[in-house]
Amino acid sequence: MLTPAFCNITSFFYPIGNSPAVSLTQDIPPSVPADILLLGCGDVRHILLTSHVDARRMDITCCDSQRAVIARNILLLSLLLDDVDKNEYSIWCIYYHLYLDQNALDLLRSQAKKLLNLSATIDAWTQSDYGRQFRLCDSATLIDIRKMWMLYSSEPKGAELSRFRRRFESALQRSKDHRQDRFGGNSVTVTGFRAASPAYITALGDLDSLHKHYWKHGSTELKKVIREKAKHPNPMFLTLEDEATFHYSSDPLLGFHLATAYAPLSPNSPSAIPNGGMSQLERVVATARAEFREWVTSFRRHSASIVVRFFIGDAISFAHTLQHKRIASVDTAGWCRNRYSFAPLVLDGSDYQAGSAPFTFDVIDTSNLCDHLGSLILLTAVTPLLRNHPSSVLYAEVLAKFQNYREVLDNVVCGHVPTMSILLGLFPVDYWTNTTSLSADEEFLCSIMGDQERRQMFLRTTWKRPIVSSSPSGSGSGLVKMQFDAEQLAQVLYKVYLYIFRDEDYTFKFANISLDILKSSSIVWYQRASFAAFLSLVKTRTKCDWDAAMNVLVLLIENRQNAPMGMNYLQELFTYLHLLGVFSTDMLRDWHSRKEMSWGFNSIFERIVSRIIPVDEKWGDLRDWKNIPPVVCVTLKVPRNKLSVLAAKRVQMGTPPVHCTVEGPASAGMNTWQNIFPACQMVFGDMSSRGAQHDDSFEVSVVEDEIGWNGTSALIVSFYAPSFFLLLEPRKARVTFGIASTQATTMHFCRELGMTLSLYTTTLDNSANVYITRYVPHQSSFPIISGFAAMDLVDPSSTNPGTDLAFSAEVDQHTGRIEQVTSRLNITSKECQSTLRSCKVQTAIVSPCQVAVTLEPTTLFVVYFPSFITENIRTRIARTSCYIEVIARIATSSEWIKHPNFMYPVHVVDGKAVNWNMPYLDLRSCPIIDTKQAKKLDWFTPHVSLAISSRERVLRENINLHRSSGEQTRLDFKASILTMFNQFVQFELKKRQVFGLYNATNGGNHILIMVSGLRLDRVNRTVVLDCAILPLCTYILPKLSKFIPVLHSKGLSQIKVDDAELRLWKQALPAYVERCRTWEHRGACEYATDAKVPLTLENGELFLCTCGNGEFPADFFTGMEYWNTVSQYAVRAAISPPFWAPYADEVYNPPLPQTAGGCATCGKEKRENGTELLYCSRCKKVQYCSSACQRAHWVKHKGECNEKK
Question: In whole angstroms, what is the distance from residue 1205 CA to residue 1193 CA?
Fold first, then answer.
């Protein structure tokens, strides 16, 4: 496997998601069918929410390594379709509660039996009532889920029931033990902020109480009389592996959007819940259940347009197999189904056999697999599966401890973000635009309650394909191979190598020692096989003398300073470079022509060469093979008793990293050699073989032990190694399985295992425990990484007709970063060649990634770059050779300052407008906020104000500070939007509904924004103004002669703008309109005709298309005179606060309230029971409404408490 091997003696079960559900299609234009890939899919919340807010056709492929996750998901979805008896509460309990009443248990068993009866074979399942909608990717997935359904359907009695209960309670107690070890007894759960955002200010205490309630009772039910009826353990929270532990931070409520429990909703609003005398805690639970009901209703209604596919196994292996199947039409790519199994991954499902299943995707969501698999390994596997379209999107989440968000993103790509994104063929949109629709405010509040030096941060990154064409008839996005100088590319790759293996560098390790780092040092993200996989992708993405680049890279790695242990991993690197087809060192490349090798190699090889030549004598080892390949598989059988130390330290160490080593005999003393191989595949089981053991055709098979660490079978471990070192000492070389040495593992295991941390050591001549074969058990080939296919690469002549486009990169040799990119426009048209020889050539930057090249007077070409570029471009013109080179330097993340208008770009693709950085949303599903209930809107102003970053706030409050024109324009734009929000939600004065963008020095009012209501965008955890946009164009003004005076009489609020801000508004409003449209663009749409958005920036001219004019709900405006006349010139829009991207800015950190005016944490004026607030018992100065709020505030208050005392 490409990921490091761990002893999974402690494993966690993740049946419930701990973050609010997201819309999977929010970046895809409405009505367009979407193919979606969910890796690490977890529960069904994202699928259900997406089906609620979006009725398009969707084909969703779900991959999860835990079979219990997939089995319970299919069971739930099938229940939702079948539930004609309206067992909504029982279904809720089955999926979310740890204990069930008899009705829910009977329903669960009945459904599981039904599924079992329909799934005897994969063909039977395909032809069943569910088979059309719930498809299985392979037969092995069916086998796995049937095992879980058997568990769910069982009706144990007597002693069997007692064993089942003990097993359930034991698993639950392990979860509670982990909770105690992780959180202690008095911790406050702050992750509920995400679920309650943006109305989170008063939610902390409530969600902490409900979280503790769930872990005390195993239920969200607050009524004791109902809860006491649920006495039966829910098998849906068990796995077949007894040691899989229900994750200690799970909470059903955290997957929902709980802001509506705190925000005041209008009575006619979607999701409004009648109060009915409920307590606030009951209201929170009722909110989650109501949202679940909405999801269920929509899923049933839209079920005919949804197909969900399921695969149980490793996400990395699945992604590589999908790509290889797409390219080579072969069902397998030599990968195992998961990290702890030798079962081969074979896509034998009927849709994959027929080629009707999707192999590339509009949306790829990797959940937080970056935290478990290593982000670069993950991105390497999935980026070839992303479709070449501007709306196609890849999401990756991270929840980890870092000093700042920029460090988080660097860690995701393992280096310089612009350089790595170019190599990966991805474009981090919010990184470059410094604009996002998701506020970081709740993440900030979560982080300030932890370690300030290394805060736990949640980050959902968004990646798209670079734009390569402006042709309205083209796809718009894609990849063109990047040309590199071999030595320069080697420097880039070497810097990646140093980054991912930086912990091996003693200078780095000793410079970053802390208790937190020491605790986490057992987490090993990468191995040399991981790096080889990345190189395999880069090879398909670049053009250069590849072998020359690899030779330089290998030389750099071999001469690395301050990391002597790294030399022990070189043979694994060379092994995987060879077997993945990336590069072969001399020894491996020329293995079969040893007689023609250089004398230097022969001198090393001399003492074993005679043994390789076949002779009649049998050596009883590898030398007996007739045709020894350069790389072989070594399989080691580790006796169970050698693993006892791991079982003894299960709780303290979790899942320590492990590896295998091959080293010279102990008799060699100081002259011995050692090679470490962390790329292991391992499983408990019994071995069998076929053929003579020391023969080329020898094969081994493994019958896997289902109960793993609880069984008695040996541990079977396989790894690939170069034959050369096995032949140096073909009998006496030592093979060891042991724990990888880190600060944490050494601290925990050194006393029992010694400094080598070896668990089991034997020699190659131990034929009972060491087996050498060509391939890993059950495989007939090496694993295959296809990388980008030829079909993924854009035809260079398609971007500008009459030309051929090529890119080349220049690298800073010291930093290994791409410093500049040259775009070479080869003129192939005879007419253009003739023009070029005598014309004037002009260039102009028209966007941060786009340069216009004009052969005067009329011939225009557009050159796109795969990253932001600086304004300092150079041009090289070869009139005889007929090419033009545009040379541009790669920008830094602060380059957005020079492009303030590039916040919400809209591209024209296939004649349709496509938002690139603005999520789509269905306003009909967004709850309407009642702005009259001011007391329940205490969260509103703090939330929208956080659209202003700390840097921007300083500029705003200190007008004398220097700022660029771009900074000022962006700040003015944000200030104008916040003014609209605040004036519409006036707490004391009369609220304003109509706003005019007013340029006092250039034409007065240019655009009217008429706000109908304030809505809650639950998916993005923010608010939006539901409004109508009326451009005051020259041709429209005469038709508004009666309407304009009415507006002035009703209090038109004029928002003052200058020319620069007005241009930004005209760039942004098309995206605000596109995001919420329920109408289709006409064939004669102005965007399609002009092939640009906006249509113009000129004053008095129409900048929006007219396709959506007049498309408003009947009750959009009431009481506004002449609205019916005016609406035919207006279009609906959803304006949200423009939040900054955390990679470029920091959140404003105001001092928390410290006075007696309210709770210092949440601001409440009374306790939950209505009594007075409690004072801090030490200083008697600060007040709190609950002990939860006091604990949460202690991080801030403790530094002052002693002083006040």
Answer: 17
Residue 540 is inside which H or E element, if any?
helix 528-541
Q: What is the DSSP string of 747-798?
A: HHHHHHHTTTTEEEEEETT-TTTEEEESSSTT-SS------S-GGGBPPTTT
| pLDDT tens profile 225-236 | 999 999 999 999
Tell me how far the alpha carbon of residue 558 is from its chain's centroid.
34
Mean pLDDT, to the nearest integer, of 1118-1127?
Answer: 88
Taking the C-alpha atoms of residue 923 and residue 161, their distance in angstroms, rounded to an integer, is 50
Residue 637 pairs in a beta bridge with 716
pLDDT digits (tens, 9 = 90+) for 938-980: 999 989 998 998 889 888 888 888 889 999 999 999 999 999 9
Alpha-carbon distance values, 789 to 423, 539, 794, 804, 1108 (Å): 15, 11, 11, 20, 40
Strands (E), 101-213: 134-136
- Specify the higher pLDDT residue, 190 or 114: 114
Residue 647: CB atoms within 10 A of its CB come to: 13
Q: Give the integer Cα–Cα distance in Å for 862 and 800.
A: 7
Query: How far apart are the C-alpha atoms of 734 and 757, rounded to whole Å?
Result: 15
> What integer pLDDT is reported at residue 93 of this predicted model?
97
Query: What per-residue confidence (pLDDT) applies to 999?
Result: 96
pLDDT greater than 50 at residue 598 = no
Selection from 450, 650, 511 nearest residue 1192 by Cα: 450
CA distance linking residue 1011 with residue 1032, whole number of Å: 16
Token readout for 647 is 């079982």
Distance CA 758, CA 738 (A): 4
CA dist., res. 655 & res. 791, Å (int): 41
Q: Report in angstroms the alpha-carbon separations of 497 from 491, 522, 566.
A: 10, 19, 11
Answer yes or no: are the C-beta atoms of 797 and 803 closer than 8 Å.
Answer: yes
d(CA 645, CA 757): 11
Rg (CA), the chain: 32
Amino acid at 1038: P
SS3 (DSSP) at 570: helix
Please, which residues have CB within 8 angstroms of residue 607's CB and are 6 or more apart in sequence? none
Please, what is the average pLDDT of the chain? 88
| Dihedral angle, C-alpha 619, 620, 624, 630, nearest 10 ° | -110
What integer pLDDT is reported at residue 733 of this predicted model?
93
Burial 551-579 (b: 16+ CB within 10 A, else e): bbbbebbeebeebeebebbbbbbbbbbbb
Cis bond leading into 198, ω under 30°?
yes
Per-residue pLDDT of 38-62, as tens digits, reads: 999 999 999 999 999 999 999 999 9
Closest CA to 583 of 536, 540, 630, 543: 536
| Mean pLDDT of the region 512-538 | 78
**H or E stretch at 874:** strand 874-878
DSSP letter string over 15-53? -S-SS----TTTTS-TT--EEEEEET--SSHHHHHHHHH
Is pLDDT above 90 for 599? no
Q: What is the pLDDT of residue 1152?
A: 43
- Given this model, what pLDDT does residue 1165 score? 76
pLDDT in tens, 814-851: 999 999 999 999 999 999 999 999 899 999 998 899 99
What pLDDT was estimated at residue 446?
Answer: 61
* 3-state SS record for 667-687: HHHHHCCEEEECCCEEEEEEE
pLDDT at 191: 75
On whether the CB atoms of residues 689 and 699 are closer than 8 A, the answer is yes
User: Are the C-beta atoms of 1019 and 195 separated by less than 8 Å?
Assistant: no
Residue 1088 phi/psi, 5-degree rounding, is -65, -40
Predicted confidence (pLDDT) at residue 452 exceeds the cutoff of 50: no
Q: What is the mean pLDDT of residues 247-274?
A: 92
